[in-house]
Amino acid sequence: MIYVPLKHLKPGMILARDVTCGSCFFSLLVAGQKLSSSIIAKLAKNNIQGVYIQSQFCGDLEVTEVVDSELKQTVITELKHFYNDYASHATISLSSIKAISNTVNDLVNHILSKEECLINIVDIKDYDTYTYTHSMYVCILCILIGIQQCYPKSTLTELGICGLLHDIGKLDVPLEIINKKSVLTNEEFKVMQSHPDKAVVRLSPCHQISSAVLKGILTHHEKYNGTGYPQGLMGKNIPLYGRITALADVYDALTSQRSYRKAWSSSDAIEYMMGCADTHFDFELLQSFLKTVAIYPVGTVVELSNGFIAVVIQNSAQNILRPKIRLLLPQEHTGEEIDLADTNNEYLNVTIKGVADDEMAFPEILFV
């Protein structure tokens, strides 16, 4: 299978994976379905940026998910219940807190059971359900960073809860500010900046939520150089959970499509975040984060520095910039496999320029 961006899809191509949509992850299209002009238009209408397509040269590729769709749906369902409880009651019920804690604990167990803890998929995100899906992915990323840091299971669960609830204070911010597509005024931005404080005020009476989680929620917008909010904390003075949640929050926000902008590619988001090392982020934690996310997910078509076109077939957390690839173009090299991390081959000085975006990188012969 090959991941093909929306603008390069053509009638006759055959889906290699189901296309899910919305916070319930319902199937919009199913694997094996042949694309038509109307189906491509349907994908565009649902803000789907690309899909996995069958290819004669990549039929053996499998994209594995860190978290199964069924569990994702369970997480979203419990989060919605918690949000409703938060919005309608002065005090959060004990049952809601227990449900969230149990769900995150199940999520931790699920992720720990996986042999490969690497986000290795171009997840399809619907900006109409951004509030819930964003919180879920931040939760997952926080857990993965914690695994890289070799934290105990109890800490992983707390990190997951922090990630899942980090933005709940936005329920106390007027919708006209939350949904505004233009630049916020200074006064509106001050209101938006109050959401971590508002969340902690509401959640503090819940003794089942630890102080470490509350501190993480409060400080997930702090920056390592002291220019963040709400307290302007600097360096290691920012609580650990806040520093970790900040990484997960920024990455998922950048790679999610919004009503006012397109999603960034994983590689662009990582490049930006690496440029913010030691200004926005804790460098040590950033290094761990980089081992949880595939810059070029399996099935991604990339352009090499020598002009060749290839598809990524395997990633390694140990060398995220140099995955194993299979050449697609030029045709005389089609099918050759190269491990870019291998220092003993002729491609030692060849690098990945970026995700292929030219029409020439997706010739029809690949999809016959």
UniProtKB/TrEMBL annotation:
Gene3D superfamilies: Hypothetical protein af1432
PROSITE patterns recorded: HD_GYP
Domain HD-GYP: 107-305
PANTHER family: CYCLIC DI-GMP PHOSPHODIESTERASE PA4108, CYCLIC DI-GMP PHOSPHODIESTERASE PA4108-RELATED
Protein name according to UniProt: HD-GYP domain, c-di-GMP phosphodiesterase class II (Or its inactivated variant)
